[in-house]
Every structure is written in C-alpha cells, then in structure tokens.
Amino acid sequence: MEWSEEEWFSLAAKAAFLHERRASSYVPAVVTSEMMKQVENRMLRWKKNVANGNDSLFQRRLEWDNLSSATAANLLQITQFAGTEL
User: Fold this and answer.
1) pTM over 0.90
2) Who's near 20: CB < 8 A, 6+ residues apart?
3) Partners of 81 in the beta sheet?
4) Is residue 42 within 8 Å of residue 72, measured between CB atoms?
5) Helices 55-64 and 33-51 meet at what angle, rounded to 10?
6) SS3 of residue 73 by DSSP
7) How far apart are CA 4 and CA 81, in angstroms?
C-alpha cells in the first residue's frame, strides 16, 4: 500500500506526544461533536490513570506541566500540522 504525503502527515500528527502538540507546528483539526466526546473520554482515562479519578490530584498533575484543564483538552484533540488539512 502506498501512502500519500497527506496520509503520512495525518498519521504523524495523530501520533504526536503532548510536548510535540504544544509546539507551534501543530493545530487542532476541525472540531466535531464526536471529537469532543473523544477528548472527554481521553481526559477521564488520563485522570483515572494518573490520579485514580481524583479531581484535585489530577489538577495538581496538570499544573506540573503548566497545563490547565482547557489546555490539556485542546492538546488531546486530533491535530494536524500547521498549513496542512486532514
């Protein structure tokens, strides 16, 4: 199977680590209600895994990385490289 350049960019953007997503080369893809449900589920799993579901512990964990809940949620969205479209 041959992949197009667009498909490679899409794969790389989806696989990006949080610190990579914070870089200016990544931007959120078009936001849909399905994507927002995925973000909510990812945030819940993250909170469960790092703070046993405890809100205050999770907020402390986010603060260690200088993140707010809103910023963390934005980072969990499907992304694309700036200047490309999925």
Assistant:
1) no
2) 26
3) 26
4) no
5) 100
6) helix
7) 15
